[in-house]
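Sequence and structure are no longer studied apart. To make this concrete, we show below a single chain and its fold as tokens.
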Amino acid sequence: MTETQKKLENLPPKQPLLIKHTLDILAPASGPKKTIVIKTAGLLLLLILIAAISFTWLSHRRLGQKELSTKVSALEEMAQLSAAAVQVYRSQGAAAAEPSFTKLLEKYPENAQLLANMGIIYLAKEEYNKAEQTLQKALASDPENTKFLTDLGTYHMAKNENEKAIEYFNKALEFDPSEPAALINRAILFEKKNQWRSAVQDYENYLKQNKFHVDLKIVIEERVRLLRSLAHMSTNILTNTEEASHVVQ
């Protein structure tokens, strides 16, 4: 074997080198293409998802706006009809206003203010059982409502259940010390109990609000002067009685 033949035999095989070289060339070419395809598909899926979410959100928003608009319209209608019914009550009395409130409650049976108004209608007609049930239902929906508490106090006052009435007026005035109807009604009940100083205090707190007709103000101021005189007289009588009892002892 010649020297040249020996050198050729010692050379590494060419086929593996060719295969390896081919793989090195193909790998970079195929790798990025696959990655680009995957990234493009992912981006497309993301865009479709965003579009679907946007469409759903817009649909719900439009539906929500429609529902809100419907509710607002219903409330406006109820307010207008209720105001008209109250006007009938003031001008024509409870019996004339009752059909209007009955119709309103058929449409809005859980509305607390309508229930309270209906309770006052029953009270004016001296239908006491209906009045109490309706007023209690109104209060149950809003236990801290000073108007509803005052209405129930007025109900008990109308039935001469004065202590119970005072309890409701007290509770109403805890939540709102300036509630006018509670102040004036409690003052009247204090007068009946000869608690003149307490009556004077409620009348004076009522006068501070300045939310009444001038004729009523004159009447209440005159009442306050009279009650102060009575309170002063009762104090003097009590003092003289105590002094007399000490002398006797």
